[in-house]
Design brief:
Helix content: 25-40%
CATH superfamily of the largest domain: FAD/NAD(P)-binding domain
Distance between the termini: 71 Å
Structural class: alpha/beta
Shape: globular
Bound molecules: flavin-adenine dinucleotide
Number of strands: 20
Largest sheet: 5 strands, mixed, barrel
Number of domains: 3
Radius of gyration: 24 Å
CATH topology of the largest domain: FAD/NAD(P)-binding domain
Low-confidence stretches: none
CATH class of the largest domain: Alpha Beta
Amino acid sequence: MEHYDAIIIGAGQAGTPLAKRLAEAGKKTAIIEKRYVGGTCINDGCTPTKAMIASARAVYQARKATELGVEVGAIKINFEKIKQRKDDIVNQFRSSSEKGLKNTKGLELIFGTARFSDKKELTISLNNGSEKKVTAEWIFINTGAKTAAPDIEGLAEINYLTSTTILDLETVPEHLVVIGGNYIGLEFGQMFNRFGSKITVLEKSSGILAKEDQDISSALTEILTDEKIELITDVKINKIAQDKKHINITLTSGKTWKEITASHILVATGRTPQTADLGLENCGIKLDDKGHILVDEKLETNIKGVYALGDVKGGPAFTHIAYNDYAIVYRNLIEDTNYTIHDRPVPYCMFTDPQLGRIGISEKEAKEKKLNYKVAVLLMSYVARGIETNETLGLMKAIVDADSKKILGAAVLASEGGEIMSVLQMAMEGDITYDRIRYCVFAHPTYSESLNNLFMNLDK
Ligand SMILES: Cc1cc2nc3c(=O)[nH]c(=O)nc-3n(C[C@H](O)[C@H](O)[C@H](O)COP(=O)(O)OP(=O)(O)OC[C@H]3O[C@@H](n4cnc5c(N)ncnc54)[C@H](O)[C@@H]3O)c2cc1C
């Protein structure tokens, strides 16, 4: 039985930097990883998807080049090269993270699967087949999440794709049906559509991006439909069956019965925390009804000295949130600060094209909270930078407090929407009110310059 000051389970987006910093602070530290260093983000999430989306955007831009007076000839997809480029980037990020851990003094990287065998004791099934028992003063759980399969008749019997397995495809699917019209499903749907697949997205709500405002959902619906992506909403899938050649899906959309024949199905209906095999019953750590680990505002579980970080604890599931969890825990434990997750900003960006950058509350939430708010909207077709670069799809939208003039939230569906949203996020964090932004001097002609006009619209 070896004893450590700190053990981290999972080399994800919180665990990896935390392990390094704790070891650098003089703590005897071990990090246990059952698969690849870097977790979902580097290996099956942000990195590979954004690398492949870049290829899909190049296809789209090549097709649109003629609108800018550039004739490019026939466009050919070399999917093998697209996949290789993605794999190379993933391998580069993974191996540099792994090297970073291995080169840190006082830090041991252990490849294996960890389970609690007591309150502060873990049994590790090492990837080499043997077993090891370890104890620690502090234990940090950073085991992330995995695809959740919905309860649909016949789904378990077929060979469906997840956001992980779809990244290993060697060829472009002929007809990909995506179950779930949210961030992951829409990013993959648009990407494979641009690579040449026929895409059908099945969404159970009345529109895609059910949590966002109606005007944002409608604008993206129009953009994706114009790209010939089929979006079917109000869907209840009755049955899925696979024969030697095809997958058949029977469904109702509203009151209409439909049958769809597909070559592939991607399940993108949500993710479930990886807590089931952690032996949490052996240490009494409490979970919510979806299996997420319950934590307090400083990310400590009900067991003193045991913390949970990232997707495994529930709430917003993003890399930057997992990374911020690390920063909070590290600074509180080592630098004696008093940070909490309460009221931290939760920006996010969906990397469809155009992107959807989001921060703060939506109009829907402002209405529900009965706030005294105003809404500023600017269509991208009125943005000089957008017109000049032929990127006129989407809109910028901001929710402001009518009394204090503070920005409460924004949704930027635009080319570089994530960057424009970040400018508004900085304004929110610095309490820069909309009447000041209206006259801020931004460089011309940038997208951010249009924030002048966005807020100019408010008093018309
Ligand atoms: C397709 C896709 C695209 C995404 N795109 C974005 C994006 O653009 N931007 C964004 O912010 N977020 C994105 N995300 C979400 C992001 O990847 C996650 O929020 C982030 O990786 C969570 O990090 P984490 O540290 O909580 O866990 P993870 O990164 O999932 O790491 C958990 C690690 O724990 C290991 N592990 C689990 N159980 C054990 C065990 N018992 N013993 C040892 N090791 C264990 C796992 O193997 C894994 O390596 C995307 C996700 C997906 C699926």
